[in-house]
Amino acid sequence: MTTAGLRTLRLGSADYPVVLPNVGDPRLHLAAVIISIHVLGQTSLGFRVSVPQILVAILTCALIEVGWTFVKSKEIVWPASAMLTGSGVALILRIVGQDRGDHWTWSGWYFFAGIAAFSLLSKYLIRFRGSHVFNPSNLGLVVAFLVIGSEVIEPLDFWWSPLDPGMAAAYLIILVGGLLITRRLRLLALAAGFWLTLAAGIGVLAASGHCMTTAWALQPVCGSTFWWTIITSPEVLIFLFFMITDPKTIPAGKSARIVFGITLALACTLLMAPQTTEFGAKVALLGGLVVLTPLRYLFDRLLPGREPARSPVSLLTETLPSGGRRRVFLRGAMVGSALVALAALIVAAGAPARVAASPAAGSSSVDVDIDPSTLPEVTVSPDALALSSEVDPDELALMLAEDLAVEGEAMLSSDTSLLRAVDDGPRLIEMERKVEVAATLGNLVVDEHSFDSLHLDVVFTDGPQGGASLALVARGTVDQVGYDPNGEEQERLTTELDTTFVMRQGASGRWVIVGEESR
Questions:
Q1: What is the mean pLDDT of residues 386-405?
Q2: What is the pTM of this model?
């Protein structure tokens, strides 16, 4: 091959062509959008990803592509696609437990390097008809999340932050950049078909009572809030504009692309429907593309690339005979039946995720008298302040003291029904068992708590994807007071108190105890 007109680089005794990026390359424009989001994430959005983690992912992919291309063609080519793959991995991938604002940590850098390398190598090793089968970063991320698991890594959240200037800038960059790039690539119809169908499918799920737990909300996200969160999620928009619109992993024909986008949205909805955690929902969304991209050749075969674009309804009905009111009615009935069947399928697939929106249904009426002046001032962690700005810490501490006092009353009266007003979940089961055993043995032991300090924090009892809960870290003393069946005090044992009471808000608005973790 001739190197005339190309820049060259001498290595040893040979000159090698150097191919630099073209200013008009859409990949550079896409890179500018993704890098802008990274910058916002580091400066104003509080992304839990560091600069070294981002650079490791990008440089890993760049080095692999430069080396692979050099071996194959003896050219030194600017690795535009590879750097997009690495940048995309770094944008979505998160290490569980990493703090916000830790911009320079190297924690988990090997996950970013390994997942980025696997993603890019899939482009070279999994091929069909001379082209890669999967979107590289999409495949790498899905495989990593499924294999490594939610205890170690997780995807970027659906919800990033309140709509402040930084979040508004992120939306502006994603929407403007995405619309310009997809318009230039003539993929707006695909993007619109996907988003509208996803909005409709998620709407069906939301109407059926779908819920998911998240790390950024104290209560399960359900109903209309779930729908709004998904369809306006910046992560979904990034998936829409910059992942499913890879021209090499979608059908070639215009109509085939529209139907592909619609089918992809349905596949994503059905995969998301049974998920009860945000981790599951996010992996399902990404997984829809992994499932569908190998089938793109089928779309091209059924819908050849040069026919004029048709609406989804016409694509469903074009094989039917035309003419006559009866036939028009039959067409409409067939389309309507298909839509109803799809809605029913989505509702059926979402059955595991239809849980009660409120985690507890206890009564707010608690007949105990606690003097608030006996309680210490509550300190609040930054994480708790961000999630519970509407919760009064001192009121929460008072409710904790009342809840514990009611537990004591339940023990003395051997009445487990009192517990349902102040306990839920594992705590309710544990206390009911204790009261029943104590009543059977006639050995009534009541814990009387005295707090020296209380600190409000956020805990994840089932891991980050199991949802956030508020917790009061309590230090002080606890008197274990033994009573006989007549209610006469028999003995008292004082011990140090250093424990965490996990709290959850019930349907009535009252905060109840759902767990206790000794420190």
A1: 90
A2: 0.79
